[in-house]
Amino acid sequence: MARRILLTVLVAVNLVLLFRIIWSDHGVIAYMNMQKRAAELERQLGDVDAKCLELSNEIRRLKTDRAYQEMVIRDKMNYVKENEVLYIFSDRTDVPQGAEDDEKKD
Fold this sequence. Notes:
This protein is mainly alpha-helical. The chain has one domain (2-77). Helices cover 75% and strands 0% of the residues. The protein is built from four helices and no strands. The model has no long low-confidence stretch (mean pLDDT 86).
């Protein structure tokens, strides 16, 4: 009888320990989730490092490369040299309002 009670207690303890190993906050499933999260964070860190390097290179070029400075100023700020004309086209095509009504009728 004592052996049976001891065996039942040991099986119950093993089941509790098994449950804790697999499904608790510090168990195998939580560990696997943390590994996935760590991999995602490392990927994000790599992306941020690459962006930081890219920005550092652009800063260095803006400080030292006169031709690059001129290109950026002309491209992003729409500056022109003397006797130049700048044409800025929008990305969308504007259709006159009357033409829209004519197209709907057809």
